[in-house]
Amino acid sequence: MNQFEILADHIINNRRPDEKEFLSILRTENLEDLLKASFELRKHFFDNTVHLCSILNTKSGMCSEDCKFCAQSKHYNADIEKYPFVHETKIKDFIKNNENNDLHRLSFVTSGKKLVNREIKKLAALVSNSFTSKNLCGSLGILNEDELQILKDAGISRYHHNLETSRNFYNKICTTHNYDERIKTVKKAKKMGFSVCCGGIFGMGESDEDILDLANELRMLDVDSIPVNFLNPIKGTPFENYNLLSPEKCLKIIAFFRFYFPDKDILVCAGRIENMRHLHENVFDAGASGIMTGDYLTRKGRMYVEDIQMIKKRGYRVL
Known about the structure:
TIM Barrel, 11 helices, alpha/beta, globular, 38% helix
């Protein structure tokens, strides 16, 4: 057994690695050994199943926040489509068009620090009358308990709110709101019984220690699903010229989160094709239990049929 297979075996037998061992996953030069072990760890907890989700950008651009990675911030000059809360037909069509495919979850995402109350109520009314068989998720910003309750009553079962990065690195990517506001939102959603999807973005200049610190924050919050996003630099944002990730590093990051959260959903989302390139089809072998398919917030994504073909080709099946 290689060193990572030994770590995986320890995890399966309830022996948690220490920080040095976790960091070794991010720093190894032996990707083949790592993928062999992460595949076995993933197989133990998830067999060959894959979880698919898709998002609808329900309100685009004009955001008051200054997150340096984001094309939707009004502080920058990215060339994106901007629109207020979408017409109800777009939401209904999104639900209807995905009703008969193998997507597990549909998510409604909005720009801005938070969605205003009347728009929250409008979204809630639309989804509560949709009678969809899909699980529904909201990513609507920093909401209070009353606003979260409106969503919960409407049938939205998961709330998505990323921490983005470590506490120490956070002020290098955003200054208009603080880390604790994000933590409080996640805690409120957990307290109210939502399944919580919370992760980060990688490739912004963070260190391996920052990745470890983020994982520790997520563990303390006991989130249910960890989305892994890779920076896809967009012209007009402060990070437009960043190119900090190799395909190999992306796979190490996915494997790291599988080892750190062996029985949690690890969903690889934005930037997976652009960053992983020729190694993209290893996304599940590295430890991902799911992917986001379809369009992203401001960019075209990969077609659902292409992802289904890849999943079958690699010997996996949609949950």
